Amino acid sequence: MPFQHIGFVHFLMTAVLACLATTSVRAGNRRPVPSTAPPAAVTNNQTKSNSSMAESLGIQFLDGSSSSLIIERDGKKYVVDLKDRTIREADAPESSPVAHPGEIASRFISSENTQLGARIFVEKCSVCHGEGGRGLASVGTPDFTDPKIQAAMADGAIVESIKNGKKGTVMPSWQDKLSDNEIGAVASFIRSLDSSDPAQQRAAASEAKEKVKVYTAADDYLYSLPTGRRLERHGFYVNFTHRFAFDPAFSGRARGAALLGLDGFAVASFGFRYGITDKLSISAYRSPSVIGRPIELMAAYHILDEHDGYPLNATFRFSVDGQNNFSKNFTANFEGIFSRSLFKRAQIYVVPTLSLQNRRLILDPTLENAPPALPGINSFSLGAGAAFDIRPSVALIGEVIPTLVNGRALGIHRPAFAIGIQKRLWRHAFTLGFSNSPGTVVSQRAGTRATFLGDPSADTPSGLFIGFDLMRQMY
To answer: Quick check: 184 and 109 in contact, CB under 8 A?
Structure first.
């Protein structure tokens, strides 16, 4: 900013402050005005006079802000914050000046936005801050209902933390995931939790519970069956699975000494997911040599979401699985993932899947050999599952994946199924379960241990083996 501009703006700020002070003194000493004109007329005249004076001085007041204004000088505009005593050049259009935390706070923190903020808070923030905003000791988050905490937080500071996150803590930045209006709405909800106003706090908590009665899946999978949950825009996720398919967990000798099969050899797979938008995502996934070393490439589109007021969630996915590191035995998969919350702590899932040129699930004990060129078989499976929270961050999960078309041709005589327990914590999810299916890519998940090992009885309940899933959202 040129030196003469700074001097002028500094002079103008001093003049504005002096005018405000003079107006306040005069207002304090002013006697009642005789009732020769209605109060509304006086107010209108004063408003017109103030607007005319502001226009002649090149001053523009910001709606909803009592501490900021815009000054125009030589064709340029400057944002003046009287409270913070700062000046910066406004590089945005007149009708939409660049917003900073203080401006967002003054524009959007209001009782009208509390309802929107309650929904967003419960959906995105409660995993770390608790549904009622009381904080979680395990994460170290503050209790927003504590009057001391509320008194120590300025509106602008709340918005700043939501918008840019807090370094050295688990608090992420929501700048690219929430609009200014949504950030202000969340800040408004946090303000409404001030326990110095119990009636307002109870109303806000009740509003949040009433508005958000939707189950939020902790992971991309129940166990092997997808949940179809909506990924965050620009979110990057890692999925890692282990299936100890060679050692049944409950049959045979010394299962306790072998830690239910955890001492055995595992079929380990991993993959990455990326949210291009909050609806469109892509992923890549790979399983090891003993199960055909397939690489799976996938695109998914999230069509409906209960959080947006729809009666159910719906996602469509298309994937191609290529064995021997995507060089042979290609299978194209079309999936529809439908889910619905029974209530806030439970959800059911239905996953119809069409696989074109699917292959029988077989074991190749020699890691250096490429998988054989097996004939392709078209198949159709209908997966079903459910999740039920027994604690705010712990759920019981179950799934079954019967193959309804050409199951026998693929060597599948009994449906694949799994049961387990799932733990969520901020951006992590861990699932420990028991299953009769070693496959995790789409084309293999309906296959069973009986086909894989060539043992007709290996897919019965006595053949259940232990496994786990680990999901981590990197950002």
So the answer is: yes
CA distance 331 to 380: 13
CATH top class, domain 236-473: mainly beta
The rounded distance, in Å, linking the Cα atoms of 378 and 405 is 8
Residue 141 Cα distances to 44, 80, 123, angstroms: 48, 34, 17
- Residue 108: what pLDDT? 56
**Type of residue numbered 234:** H
Phi, psi of 244 (to 5 degrees): -90, 65
CATH 3.40.50.2000 fits 108-211, yes or no: no
Judged by phi (left if over 0) then psi (alpha if -120 to 50, else beta), residue 157 lies in: alpha
- In order of 124, 173, 181, 368, 422, the CA distances from 193 in angstroms are 17, 22, 19, 61, 30
Do β-strands 280-286 and 76-81 pair in parallel, antiparallel, or remain unpaired? unpaired
Question: What CA–CA distance (Å, rounded) separates 421 from 405?
Answer: 30
**Residue with tokens 């028991």, as numbered in its chain:** 434
Q: Which residue has the higher pLDDT, 456 or 151?
A: 456
Per residue in 77-135, pLDDT (tens digit) is 777 767 556 777 765 443 344 455 555 555 555 555 677 787 788 777 877 887 678 88
The Cα 185–Cα 113 span in angstroms is 5
Structural tokens at position 198? 């119990």
Coil, helix or strand at residue 14:
helix
What distance in Å separates the CA atoms of residue 275 and residue 257, rounded to the nearest whole number?
A: 43
pLDDT surpasses 60 at 213 = yes
Asked if 420 and 223 touch (Cβ cutoff 8 Å), the reply is: yes
pTM: 0.67
Q: Would you list the domain boundaries of the chain?
A: 3-32+39-98, 108-211, 236-473
- Among 379, 337, 383, 321, smallest CA distance to 354 is for 379
Distance between CA atoms of residues 206 and 28, nearest Å: 43
Residue 55 has pLDDT above 60, yes or no: yes
Distance between CA 11 and CA 157 in Å, rounded? 29
In three-state secondary structure terms, 133 is coil
Instruction: Look up residue 344 and give its amino acid.
Output: K
Summarised one tens digit per residue, pLDDT across range 8-45 is: 444 455 554 444 444 443 444 444 444 444 444 444 55
Which residues on adjacent β-strands are paired with residue 80?
69, 87
Q: Say how many CA atoms lie within 13 Å of 171 toward its Cβ.
A: 19
Which residue reads 């892509």 in tokens?
282
C-alpha distance from residue 86 to each of 10, 66, 80, 358 (Å): 10, 15, 6, 66
